[in-house]
Design a protein that fits this description.
Elements (H helix, E strand, L loop, with lengths): L6 E10 L2 E11 L4 E5 L6 H8 L7 E7 L5 E3 L5 H9 L2 E4 L3 H4 L6 H11 L5 H14 L16 H13 L5 E5 L7 H18 L2 E5 L3 H7 L2 E6 L2 E7 H6 L4 H12 L1
Parallel strand pairs: 3-8, 3-9, 6-7, 7-8
Antiparallel strand pairs: 1-2, 1-4, 4-5, 9-10
Helix pairs in contact: 4-5, 4-6, 5-6, 6-7
Bound molecules: adenosine-5'-triphosphate.
Keywords: ATP-binding, Lyase, Nucleotide-binding
Pfam family, one: ABC_tran
Protein name: Phosphonate C-P lyase system protein PhnK
Length: about 260
Amino acid sequence: MTDEPLLRARGLTKHYGERIGCADVSFDLYEGEVLAIVGESGSGKSTLLGLLANELPATAGEVLYRMRDGIVRDIASLSEPERRLLARTDWGYVRQDSREGLRMRVSAGANVGERLMALGERRYAGIRETALTWLDRVEIARNRIDDRPTDFSGGMRQRLQIARNLVTNPRLVFMDEPTSGLDVSVQARLLDLVRGLVADLGLAIVIVTHDLAVARLLSHRIVVMRRGRVVETGLTDQVLDDPRDAYSQLLVSSVLAA
Ligand SMILES: Nc1ncnc2c1ncn2[C@@H]1O[C@H](COP(=O)(O)OP(=O)(O)OP(=O)(O)O)[C@@H](O)[C@H]1O
């Protein structure tokens, strides 16, 4: 273990032509820490997540990541193979739309095994055994291993995405509104599962959500965005119970009033 941050965002800025996606965002993320990015629609949450996950090029600023070998790299300087390897091993990305995060035409088992195969694992029996273990962990019945995600409910698909991402023991997982569109009870089950995995595996998570209840339940720290800028950041309970910034106060109170 080390006290060094796992990831550092420094002055991250993204312009879409004249439009500002996000501007001058800086923070540190530590191992095992869950950071929620909240804000209303259009505040820049998805843009920031895209920059952090190296899926969008920044207009200015940088993301520094401490790789598994301990060396801190600017993610924009990674070669294409290095970038792909990082995205497949030490990082995960759980998408709002499971059709973007899963391969819908292959079985649940193949969805989970794919990243292992990409890392060179060729023993079919071993891959299947690991996939079964992960189906257990995300509470999908073992006899569904040969079924396709198209036959799964929304909640099961999100749990399968989680298994698919965690099979390589990533240290950092990005999540983009993972519970939106799910029924309340299904959401609660998913959040419970994620909480358990965070505790067991010491995962760091950056989660984008417009739902402050999700942020409250999962995150240690929170970043409040408005018009592409961070207006407030701090410990989740502190920000949600006693927001300093006028906009955060509005955001919190409008949810409370809802
Ligand atoms: N591809 C794009 N081209 C042009 N402008 C964009 C693009 N993507 C985002 N924007 C603009 O950047 C700003 C931030 O958008 P972003 O999608 O990051 O916000 P958000 O908080 O994730 O919103 P939502 O919750 O609706 O997804 C908005 O003004 C948006 O219109």
